[in-house]
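hiii so um. not sure if this is the right channel but i have a protein structure encoded as tokens and i wanna go backwards to a sequence. like what aa goes where. can anyone help
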């Protein structure tokens, strides 16, 4: 009896502390800005390196996504507090851009011919307008352009 009560209390506290995750599979583009040249070399800023993947889940504070490599060129996606730029394509065509910092990764599909990596990242920055759209998506999910999804049924 006491064990059940403590278990319920723990679950309720955990729900309030940890942001709720929404399992969502959306296209994502991860970019890294290469380190700037040092010294007296002057020139154009380098173009960001990018990799495409798919989101696994989203929350108010972080995202998880799957990509085909753990690094882009010589830059690892996780570690060294490296800031990544994530661009998520929502179902209605809206693009949400945010800065994230990779926290952990796990190699998945190891036995397949192509390995993939699931990366968990903390959202570090997002402009206010995009944050509102993002949080609305988390709360309400995808809506049709008209705002109402209508299904037709055959009535005989």
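sure thing!! here u go:
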């Amino acid at each position: 009896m006491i064990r059940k009560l403590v278990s319920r209390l723990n679950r309720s506290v955990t729900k309030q502390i940890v942001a709720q995750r929404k399992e969502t599979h959306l296209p994502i583009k991860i970019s890294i800005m290469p380190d700037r040249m040092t010294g007296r070399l002057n020139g154009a800023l380098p173009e960001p390196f990018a990799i495409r993947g798919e989101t696994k889940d989203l929350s108010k504070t972080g995202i998880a996504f799957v990509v085909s490599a753990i690094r882009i060129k010589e830059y690892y996606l996780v570690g060294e507090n490296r800031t990544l730029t994530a661009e998520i394509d929502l179902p209605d065509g809206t693009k949400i851009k945010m800065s994230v910092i990779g926290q952990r990764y796990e190699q998945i599909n190891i036995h397949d011919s192509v390995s993939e990596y699931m990366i968990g990242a903390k959202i570090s920055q997002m402009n206010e307008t995009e944050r509102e759209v993002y949080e609305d998506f988390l709360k309400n999910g995808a809506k049709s352009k008209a705002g109402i999804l209508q299904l037709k049924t055959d009535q005989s």
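oh and The first strand starts at residue 22 and ends at 23.
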